[in-house]
Amino acid sequence: MQHYKTSLIDEGATQALGKSLARCLQPGLVIYLHGDLGAGKTALTRAILHAAGHQGNVKSPTYTLAEPYQVQIHGKACKIMHFDLYRMISADEFIEAGFRDEFNADTICIIEWPEKADSLLPAADLDIVIDILDEGRAVEIKANTTAGETSLAGLHFAPNL
Ligand SMILES: Nc1ncnc2c1ncn2[C@@H]1O[C@H](COP(=O)(O)OP(=O)(O)OP(=O)(O)O)[C@@H](O)[C@H]1O
Ligand SMILES: [Mg+2]
After folding, report:
1. Which PANTHER family does the entry mention (predicted)?
2. Are 52 and 80 within 8 A, CB to CB?
């Protein structure tokens, strides 16, 4: 599957999608999250992290640009890096923080506001686009690589359940 579309009627549905995504992700994936302010990028990431076993808070890493989490994916320890690049001013910030090393086979990188990093970021395996509707959200997930396709093929999500 290269393309998946669904709607999320309320925040509970966003949480449910995060839970379903946590079950189909693989270490090494790079996931871009697109959507306006308040679209639900952090809400979706939070749901993925909680479903993957993280028990504490998940705050938007607005000023630190990134936050690491140790979770379990398919029963194995895995790191998820949650980026929010909204306030990134220069490429130097990203490079000096050593963020490029986080893009490796053992880590899932989830990136809010990838647009702010221009060509600095490795390409996305999955692009997730969230649109704000009058009621709820529309979500589109696009797989750009074989790894992304493999993950998306394993997504089982039943909205409104
Ligand atoms: N499916 C949904 N329907 C309606 N509201 C939702 C849905 N999912 C999440 N929300 C709400 O939308 C808001 C999303 O906020 P969130 O911080 O996740 O957005 P964001 O995309 O990360 O924004 P930013 O770009 O500022 O980081 C929250 O108030 C949440 O309750
Ligand atoms: Mg956010």
Report:
1. TRNA THREONYLCARBAMOYLADENOSINE BIOSYNTHESIS PROTEIN TSAE
2. yes
Counting from 1 in the atom list of ligand 1, the atom nearest the Cα of 13 is: 1
Give the residue-averaged pLDDT of 105-113. 97
> pLDDT-derived band of residue 161, with 50, 70 and 90 as boundaries?
low
pLDDT tens, position by position, 49-65: 999 999 999 999 988 99
Query: Best of 17, 42, 84 to mutate for ligand 1, by most ligand atoms within 8 A of CB?
Result: 42
Ligand 1: residue whose CA is nearest its atom 12: 40
DSSP state of 75: T
Q: What are the structural domains, with CATH classification, of the chain? A: 3-153 (3.40.50.300)
